[in-house]
Automatic annotation (TrEMBL):
One of its GO terms (molecular function) is DNA binding. The keyword Lipid metabolism does not apply. Coiled coil: none annotated. The modification 4-aspartylphosphate is found at D174. It comes from Natronolimnohabitans innermongolicus JCM 12255. Residues 21-125 form the HTH hxlR-type domain. The lineage of its organism: Archaea, Methanobacteriati, Methanobacteriota, Stenosarchaea group, Halobacteria. This is HoxA-like transcriptional regulator. SMART domains: REC. InterPro entries: CheY-like_superfamily, HTH_HxlR, Sig_transdc_resp-reg_receiver, WH-like_DNA-bd_sf, WH_DNA-bd_sf.
Length: 282
């Protein structure tokens, strides 16, 4: 793997001129120029979220890009050391592309840019709906989110139903919300918004069959709430298969954090979930 690289001034896309800027600022501008081409950052982020990927896999993930443009883009990001090409098999020839250490190092920068864009570029703040019968908790969660998002609260099934509309981006649903058929509610909410199920006790393995994008367990801290919302907002616009894969991975990861692997391995539901995730990733 390529661990580091130096962007030469003549290839950086911005000339180093005597503009009075400190050297560190000029280096930052040179680094930004690496991502000035439309598809360079898209390919890097795609490989970060779903890689390593083969050429055709990338085409499938990026339906708007042509084969020629993808080939040129891969050459470009390889030239600057962000991506490497790895031969998986010689006969038949099969290759995969994955991020180098240098490529992986830029992902936190993209995450920070996403947070910045959410706060400063959106014409309207995303809306988060908190559906929890515990008014104290709903108020607390709302206070944590209010400086970044528009917050709506619901404490019963009827209030949740009245609050749902296409303007809601992320919905937290407490599994103990009174007056609801939880699975039916999650199906409806999930068709309109990104959905996070909040559970009090350790749920059964059948959680894998719930229609939600992520799962949190009480007690929840501020950083966890914010990260969960930001993750779901970043995933808006992904395909149905991408959403299903991410949701299944999140639910499996949650179960593995609260149950021993050997206990989960005895569950047919868990094994089916693991097999399905392997199919997604094949």
């Amino acid at each position: 793997m390529v661990n580091s690289y130096i962007i030469a001034p003549e290839t950086a896309g911005m000339t180093r001129r005597d503009d009075g800027l400190p050297a560190d600022d000029r280096i930052a501008l040179d680094a930004l120029s690496v991502f000035s081409k439309k598809w360079h950052p898209v390919v890097v982020l795609t490989l970060s979220r779903y890689g390593p990927l083969g050429f055709n896999d990338l085409l499938e993930e990026l339906p708007e890009i042509s084969s020629k443009v993808l080939s040129d883009t891969l050459d470009g990001v390889r030239d600057v050391g962000l991506v490497e090409r790895r031969v998986v098999s010689d006969s038949p020839l099969r290759v995969e592309y994955e991020l180098t250490d240098a490529g992986a190092d830029v992902i936190p920068i993209f995450d920070s840019l996403g947070d910045w864009g959410t706060r400063h570029l959106e014409s309207e703040s995303p809306t988060v709906l908190l559906a929890d019968s515990d008014r104290r908790l709903a108020e607390l969660y709302g206070d944590w989110l209010a400086d970044r998002y528009s917050v709506v609260r619901a404490h019963t099934g009827d209030e949740l139903e009245r609050s749902l509309d296409e303007g809601v981006d992320v919905v937290f649903v407490d599994d103990g919300l009174p007056g609801v058929d939880l699975e039916a509610t999650l199906n409806v909410v999930g068709s309109l918004s990104r959905t996070i199920l909040v559970v009090g006790d350790r749920p059964a393995v059948e959680l894998l069959e719930r229609s939600c994008d992520d799962v949190l367990q009480k007690p929840v801290v501020r950083e966890t709430i914010l990260e969960a919302v930001e993750t779901q907002l970043r995933r808006q616009g992904e395909s149905a298969d991408q959403r299903a894969r991410a949701a299944l991975a999140a639910k499996l990861s949650f179960l593995e954090s609260v149950y021993p692997r050997e206990r989960l391995a005895t569950s047919d539901t868990y094994r089916r979930g693991r097999d399905r995730l392997a199919e997604f990733e094949a």
